[in-house]
UniProtKB/TrEMBL annotation:
This is Molybdopterin oxidoreductase family protein. Gene3D superfamilies: 2.40.40.20, 3.40.50.740, ADC-like domains, Dimethylsulfoxide Reductase, domain 2. It comes from the Bacteria. The lineage of its organism: Bacteria, Bacillati, Actinomycetota, Actinomycetes, Kitasatosporales. It comes from Streptomyces phaeolivaceus. One of its GO terms (biological process) is respiratory electron transport chain. It holds the Pfam family Molybdopterin. GO terms for molecular function: 4 iron, 4 sulfur cluster binding; metal ion binding; molybdopterin cofactor binding; NADH dehydrogenase activity. Residues 3-62 form the 4Fe-4S Mo/W bis-MGD-type domain.
Length: 742
């Protein structure tokens, strides 16, 4: 490989910061240095500590460089052939004895689009199982479900990040941007520099909340009531946009009635946010011409997450903001490919292109691309938690890629037990994660800098990660793993190992779907710093378009029923997309940075108000468990910590979990700073040192969730599921506290 800088993207969060990777100057391409890549507009060269130190995982001494197979209860080195044969035997045995749905597949929001696509195809075509889902279900699924309901289309941000500093007010709900994606904080700083205002809604006074003009600190799990109280005041103060409501929405009257039942004084009692604070938030949000609401995991990771996000979307509809320039609603997706990971088929209910698995036309289209009978494709399977909960009972074998549920799943001790009860577990990973350590076979796979592939960031911008170095001997890519396993399971074709070849097939499979990538090619991605979907191109000539390096538009067409590109009756492509423009035949579609400017993705082009009402969290404090627990992240660790806990610099900055609590609560408990505190919920017990701060409500404690063992926060969390998104209630549960060692 050339000893020069390769432009690529960070392996971690959904910002997908641009960076240059340069192999070491000594000629060895094993040591990689990260340098600034100022040309990428999202982060303009800025990186957080995780991105800057990401190469440390490439050369980590605990990195796996050969397969492991369990013999007599112990994981031991094995050849690739032995390891792959063992996996094939395990899956075939399960399928023969218990049927295809006894084989489970679990993916991750960090997998590239190509891997997510291939994994969905592998599950449905090779194994014939419906039982596939991924850890993105635990990330943004409530926002996705709410966006689908309201707008008929889910793309995290329907506008680019660059619009944020140019709006008038941002309400940021349940996002600690300063710690989760620090380079993005500048968008909020620039907003305020430009005279805009920032309202942060978070039970904790986070580093992000400290930047706000107004910080509202509701009880965890009450954001739905808070949004309803704000909507009540917007109506009562005559701040609705009646013309917009009439012209661009439906369902207002029912929503209005629901909001009017939530009097500000009632909302104050539920949330702890005072009526004057509510009025000030309404004033700041409604006075500017442009305003946005951005949500993240706070409102989304609840058993009423879909309704909660829906309530925040209603605010943007009632005030005429959604689908208008520099305005609207957006979700700040968390994982590196959290957006693309939900678009291409590793989700239990979806096919590539964000198509619905239950849609006969979608099944026909994708089956044709895959060369199989549409009737052979299984239907929707269980959601992530339900799938994990069925391990060892209905699901007997599991193939897992890019996830570490022993740390990251809710009610984690129970899920760990379920994993231990499997007949067979195979894990692909780069290190021996806590989940991989339980496997029968562990396959060591290539990492981000050692392979090419695409991701889709939180803006819906499709990006190209480039291979910068040669992988170590002994590791193979996830695509190679699927190719080898498919062959052993009798499917010789259809699982190429070259990422670009997979992407070409993905283009055809996504063509005409809501998330249409058919006009995107690797060459375009390399030249254009990413392309926003939907980006329709030629369906039939996808390969030729790739050779030309462009996505060629096949034909102009009328607006389709769904407002997104679709195949018209004459076989040509109908191009108009919500916010996009039809183009003449032969032109290149530019991609769609801004959605919904002309119409929403619903059948009638109108956004739908969704009437919602307050309801309590699945678990409220009581005499036995009198305190609320909420969980989240710290800046130096990422998700389950499988990678970042292997980086010395990050471990020094964030060596372990802690329990954050208010001085009044600490005094009642008799806990001193640094003293071990046991946090006990109905699901288990976790112990970590106390960190005492006035930046949290006195009725609430906070724990970060990156660590296994005694301080594993997810031992405590509640798997109560949202009825629509099937999102577990990570963000709130009832606990009691005990000082340890007294
Ligand atoms: Fe950027 Fe996120 Fe990577 Fe940090 S972790 S460098 S914010 S992509």
């Amino acid at each position: 490989m050339p000893n020069s800088a390769t432009p690529t993207h960070c392996p971690y969060c959904a910002l997908q910061c641009g960076m240059n990777l340069t192999p070491g100057a000594d000629g060895s391409d094993g040591i990689v240095v990260v340098t600034e890549r100022a040309d990428f507009p999202v982060n303009r060269g800025a990186l957080c500590g995780k991105g800057r130190t990401a190469p440390a995982v490439l050369s980590s001494r605990v990195r796996l460089t050969g397969p492991l197979v369990r013999r007599a209860g112990v994981l031991e080195p094995a050849s690739w052939d032995e390891a792959l044969d063992r996996i094939a035997e395990g899956l075939i045995r399960t399928r023969t004895e218990h049927g295809p749905d006894a084989c489970g597949v679990f993916g991750g929001g960090g997998l590239t689009n190509e891997k997510a696509y291939a994994l969905g195809k592998f599950a449905r075509v090779v194994l014939g199982t419906s039982q596939i889902d991924y850890n993105g279900r635990f990330c943004m699924s409530s926002a996705a479900a709410a966006g689908m309901k309201a707008f008929g289309l889910d793309r995290g941000l329907p506008f680019p990040l660059e619009d944020i500093p140019r709006t008038g007010c941002v309400i940021l709900v349940g996002s600690n941007l300063a710690e989760t994606m620090p380079p993005a904080l500048r968008y909020l700083t620039e907003l305020r520099d430009n005279g805009g205002t920032l309202i942060v809604i978070d039970p904790r006074r986070t580093r992000t909340a400290e930047q706000a003009d107004l910080h509202l600190s509701p009880r965890p799990g009450t954001d739905l009531a808070l949004a309803l109280g704000l909507l009540h005041l917007i109506v009562a103060e005559g701040r609705t946009d009646e013309e917009y409501i009439r012209e661009r929405t439906s369902g207002w009257e029912e929503t209005r009635a629901a909001a009017m039942a939530h009097w500000p004084e009632y909302v104050e009692r539920i949330t702890g946010v005072s009526v004057p604070e509510l009025r000030e938030a309404v004033r700041l949000f409604c006075e500017p011409e442009h305003a946005m609401v951005l949500t993240a995991r706070g409102p989304e990771q609840q058993s009423k997450g879909t309704d909660t996000v829906g309530a925040w979307i209603n605010l943007t509809l009632a005030t005429g903001r959604a689908g208008r320039p520099l305005s609207g609603y957006g979700c700040l997706t968390g994982q590196g490919n959290g957006q693309g990971g939900r678009e291409h088929g590793q989700k239990a209910d979806q096919l590539p292109g964000y198509r619905k698995l239950v849609d006969p036309e979608a099944r026909r289209h994708v089956a044709e691309v895959w060369g199989v009978d549409p009737d052979s494709l299984p239907g929707p399977g269980r959601s992530a938690y339900e799938l994990l909960d069925a391990l060892g009972t209905d699901i007997r074998s599991l193939l897992l890629m890019g996830s570490n549920p022993v740390v990251s799943a809710p009610r984690a001790a129970h899920i760990e037990d379920r994993i231990r009860s499997l007949d067979f577990l195979a894990v692909c990973d780069v290190v021996l994660s806590e989940t991989a350590a339980l496997a029968d076979v562990v396959l060591p796979v290539t990492q981000w800098a050692e392979e090419s592939g695409t991701t889709t960031n939180l803006e819906g911008r499709v990006l190209l990660r480039r291979r910068a170095i040669t992988p170590p001997d002994g590791v193979r890519s996830d695509l190679e793993v699927m190719h080898e396993l498919a062959a052993r399971l009798g499917v010789e074709k259809g699982f190429p190992t070259d990422p670009e070849e997979v992407f070409e097939e993905l283009r055809r499979a996504s063509a005409g779907g809501p998330a249409d990538y058919s006009g995107i090619t690797y060459r375009r991605l390399a030249e254009e710093n990413g392309v926003f979907w939907p980006c329709p191109g030629s369906v039939e000539d996808a390969g030729a378009a790739s050779a030309a390096g462009v996505g060629v538009v096949a034909a102009a067409g009328a607006v389709t029923a769904t407002g997104v590109g679709a195949v018209a009756a004459d076989g040509t492509r109908a191009l108009p997309v919500p916010g996009g423009q039809g183009l003449p035949r032969g032109d290149v579609h530019p991609g769609t940075p801004r959605l919904f400017l002309d119409r929403f993705g619903t059948e009638d082009g109108r956004a739908r108000f969704v009437p919602v009402s307050h309801r309590a969290a699945a678990e409220e404090p009581d005499g036995e468990y009198p305190v609320l627990l909420t969980t989240g992240r710290v800046v130096a660790q990422y998700q389950s910590g499988a990678q970042t806990r292997r980086v010395d610099e990050l471990n020094a900055a964030a060596p372990g979990p802690f329990v954050e609590l208010h001085p009044r609560l600490a005094e009642r408990l008799g806990a001193a700073e640094g003293q071990p505190v046991a946090v006990v919920s109905r699901r288990g017990r976790a112990v970590a040192p106390a960190r005492i701060t006035t930046g949290i409500r006195p009725d609430t404690v906070f724990m970060p969730f990156h660590w296994p063992g005694e301080g594993r926060a997810n031992t405590l969390t509640n798997p109560a599921l949202d009825p629509t998104s099937r999102m577990p209630e990570f963000k709130t549960c009832a606990v009691r506290l005990e000082v340890v060692g007294e």
